[in-house]
Design brief:
Elements lengths: L2 H9 L3 H12 L4 H7 L1 H4 L4 H30 L5 H9 L3 H8 L9 H7 L3 H9 L5 H5 L12 H17 L2 H14 L1 E6 L17 E5 L5 H12 L3 E6 L2 H12 L6 H51 L9 E5 L6 E6 L5 E7 L8 H14 L4 E5 L4 H10 L7 E5 L4 H5 L2 H6 L5 H14 L1 H5 L18 H19 L1 E2 L5 H4 L7 H14 L16 H7 L3 E2 L17 H10 L4 H6 L1 H4 L14 H12 L29 E10 L2 E5 L6 E4 L20 E10 L4 E5 L10 H6 L16 H13 L1
Parallel strand pairs: 4-7, 7-8, 9-10, 13-15
Antiparallel strand pairs: 1-2, 1-3, 4-5, 5-6, 11-12, 11-14, 12-13, 14-15
Helix pairs in contact: 1-2, 1-5, 2-5, 8-11, 9-11, 11-15, 12-14, 12-15, 13-15, 14-15, 15-22
Length: 754
């Protein structure tokens, strides 16, 4: 089966679809472009399917390269046979290929090769034949001091070494043991006793004595175990039941008619083969494969979170006053114009220790009036709730929105080369505040300037293969940027670089051209940008928007190659293109089947019609105001049973982290995400989602908060505990005074007495 057919079978698509996608990608087309503008060619495959085809095709190409290298190596050794060629060509996995190559792989000196040099190969063959009745008499002729064989036992040991290596290099044997590892293998960790009491080791306490099935270990636990091993606190071992592994080898290699003497020698050789060679080799392989699977799962989690974060609702082009809160060093303040340009900056001191409340209030009020501020963005870091309370208390007009903004990664941006280029005359504090303000107006445009790993929405991201992580996250950013579309006359170089067909070099050329020549007036003007040729124009044009262009289609997602179709619509209805975009009654008269051609099918025609209904529409949800619970600003304010509003900041395989406004996210464990069993948290919750959560546990010293989204998270707890918590009807009132144990027991006795 060739690669195209194999991918089609694996992904349940047609071979024609796979071949078309592979050819389009080879011709320089991007996944967003293919998904949006080549639906007729691909049968309307979506971005996920297209990426799967791309990735699998790349994997198979790498496999073919390795196959070719192996065949060349064996051929140079003069050992290539027709049967071996057929086996190598037919191998479908890298593991199968490496198993076939193992006997021919150049090696350093081994115990088996040393034994062969001592002339013990014939004795090894006698052991494999299993017909002798006395091992010593068979080995005696091979004792030769000149060759380094000083005794009968040395001769037998060398022969067993040869047998052990032969067994370990047999592809069928390795596959049988590999299968046993996957089916019955156990991943076991133990703490290094000398380090068990160290404070740094306590984060791995759950894994001091832990055992998990290889086939079922969740990715986050595997990555945690590996991190504990890497940091030198844990020992990690992977193994199946040894007796089963030896039984497999004995059944494969010990003949039913073997003599007792032969059986004894073969059992020794097989035990050595498994313990010294096979187990170590397969364990290394299983470690690698489980790590790759854990990486893939973690990348999926990261990608899902990142997508939600990038596509968070945008406030839009508003004049914003942004605050980066602080205590001792003050609160950094910037004023931004509707395009995100920096208009003014200063520092105010409304919080401890200075408490210059009146002075700070006067500054904020004056700036709101002077710059006609429409919204205030407050970073959610240190002193966030205190600063929010200050802003809400100074009597600003109700028309000014006050929003707490997630500032994760803002400090990374402020110290980056991008920020230095954008604000060369301002320090890190000003840049960070600007980033907070811009995240309110357009999260996507600002977040693309930051390495996704710094945004804080993954799990164990620093333990994942960094190249695979970058590739996976780049796919997400590219998809998000192109699904929203980019206003070419205001977009930053970083945002433009993610547009289909562009990249950093062409993005820079666009910005430079725009700076030198003024705003682009039409999509056709893009062709004047240096080095932006026909292929790049084809790929990027549909994703770039030009507001107030002479041709209204330039502000839509209709590709220039299809403008003729829209003009045909308008001509048939005796109206202008603009009329067609603004009058629903005209669009309703269109019979799309009349416009189907060899180049344009119904999928594209439907997309065009949908775009005409809402030209340049933003797929992101509408912006909604959110506020944390007043009076709950730090972890010590929390009481068991409180029901609080929160915002999801991260979703992992084991639950979701929620910001409830106390400077420490709480965890909603997967078992508390709902009243019903939840297998995949991403199916029920997402980053940036607004939720109501119940506080079920607070550990102030360790700064840990356990939350629940169940209707009644206390089901199954003792009655006394239930009565001690606040009523759900009044969740935000102070919790009742803590009862003594005697009072609780008295209540229980009275209840049961009734």
């Amino acid at each position: 089966m060739n690669n195209i057919a194999r991918i089609a079978t694996e992904l349940a698509v047609t071979a024609r679809q796979v071949e078309t996608v592979v050819n389009l990608l080879a011709d320089g087309a991007t996944i967003p472009f293919i998904a949006r503008y080549r639906k007729e060619l691909t049968g309307s495959l979506d971005e996920v399917q297209l990426a799967a085809i791309r990735d699998r095709h790349e994997q198979l190409l790498e496999l073919d390269k390795r196959r070719e290298a192996i065949l060349n190596s064996i051929e140079k050794q003069g050992k290539l046979t027709p049967d071996l060629i057929a086996a190598v060509v037919g191998a479908e996995t890298l593991a199968a290929l490496e198993d076939l190559y193992l006997p021919y792989k150049p090696k350093r000196k081994t115990r088996a090769s040393a034994a062969r040099e001592k002339g013990l190969e014939p004795l090894a063959q006698l052991l494999v034949a299993q017909l002798f009745t006395d091992a010593a008499s068979e080995a005696a002729p091979f004792v030769n001091a000149e060759l380094g064989v000083g005794s009968i036992e040395e001769a037998l040991e060398g022969a067993r070494d040869i047998v052990a290596e032969q067994v370990s290099e047999n592809p069928e044997t390795r596959q049988a043991i590999r299968q046993l590892f996957w089916q019955r293998g156990v991943l076991q960790t133990s703490v290094i006793k000398a380090k068990a009491a160290l404070p740094e080791a306590q984060k791995f306490k759950d894994y001091f004595e832990c055992s998990e099935a290889v086939s079922k270990v969740p990715s986050h636990r595997l990555l945690a175990m590996r991190r504990g091993e890497k940091e030198g606190f844990l020992l990690l071992d992977i193994f199946p039941p040894e007796d089963e592994a030896l039984r497999i080898l004995n059944e494969r290699y010990i003949r039913p008619d073997a003599t007792p003497a032969a059986r004894a020698q073969l059992e020794l050789a097989l035990h050595d083969s498994y313990k010294r060679l096979i187990k170590t080799s397969i364990e290394t392989e299983i470690r690698l494969e489980t790590k790759m699977k854990a990486d893939a799962e973690a990348i999926q989690v990261f990608a899902a979170n990142l997508k939600k974060l990038l596509l968070a609702p945008a406030l839009g082009q508003k004049r914003v006053l942004a605050l980066d809160p602080g205590f001792r060093t003050g609160t950094k303040l910037v004023c931004l114009g509707a395009q995100g340009e920096l208009l003014f900056h200063t520092v105010i001191y409304p919080n401890e220790p200075q408490r210059e409340v009146q002075k700070a209030a006067a500054v904020v009020k004056d700036l709101c009036t002077r710059f006609n501020i429409e919204a205030i963005a407050i970073g959610n870091g240190t002193a966030s709730r205190e600063t929010e309370a200050f802003v809400r208390s100074i009597g600003l007009p109700r028309t000014i929105l006050i929003v707490v903004v997630n500032e994760s990664g803002a400090s990374v941006y402020s110290a980056s080369e991008v920020a230095r280029e954008e604000f060369p005359d301002h320090d890190l504090t000003v840049r960070g505040a600007v980033s907070i303000g811009r995240r309110l107006t357009d999260p996507l445009a600002e977040l693309v300037k930051i390495d996704p790993k710094s945004i804080g929405v993954g799990q164990y991201q620093h333990d994942i293969d960094q190249l695979r992580l970058k590739s996976g996250l780049d796919d997400v950013v590219i998809s998000c940027v192109n699904s929203v579309g980019v206003e070419v006359n205001t977009a930053s170089r970083e945002l433009l670089s993610y547009v289909s067909g562009l990249g950093p070099a062409l993005a820079k050329n666009i910005v430079d051209f725009r700076t030198a020549n003024g705003p682009f007036r039409s999509r056709e003007d893009l062709r004047q940008v240096p080095r932006l040729g026909d292929k790049a124009f084809e790929q990027c044009a549909g994703f770039l928007r030009i507001r107030e262009a002479a041709n209204p289609l330039d502000s839509s997602a209709v590709h220039p190659e299809r403008y003729g179709v829209v003009e045909h619509f308008a001509k048939d209805l005796s109206c202008s293109v603009k009329d067609l975009m603004t009058k629903a009654e005209l669009r309703q008269q269109l019979d799309l089947t009349r416009y189907v051609s060899p180049d344009v099918g119904l999928p594209t025609l439907r997309d065009i019609l949908a775009e005409l209904e809402k030209p340049g529409r933003d797929p992101r949800e509408q912006f909604e105001l959110f506020a944390f619970q007043e009076g709950v600003t730090q972890i010590s304010d929390l009481k068991i049973g409180m029901v609080l509003p929160g915002v999801v900041t991260n979703v992992t395989n084991f639950g979701a982290f929620v910001d409830i406004g106390v400077h420490q996210d709480g965890l909603v464990h997967i078992s508390h995400l709902g009243d019903r069993f939840v297998k995949d948290p991403h199916q029920v919750i997402a980053v940036q989602q607004k939720v109501k959560v119940t506080v079920v546990e607070v550990d102030v010293p360790r700064k840990r908060i356990a939350l629940s989204m169940k209707t009644d998270p206390f089901v199954g707890q003792p009655a006394a505990d239930k009565e001690a918590r606040p009523s759900r009807a009044k969740p935000h009132r102070p919790a009742p005074k803590e009862e003594s144990m005697e009072e609780k027991l008295a209540k229980l006795k009275a209840k049961f007495a009734r």
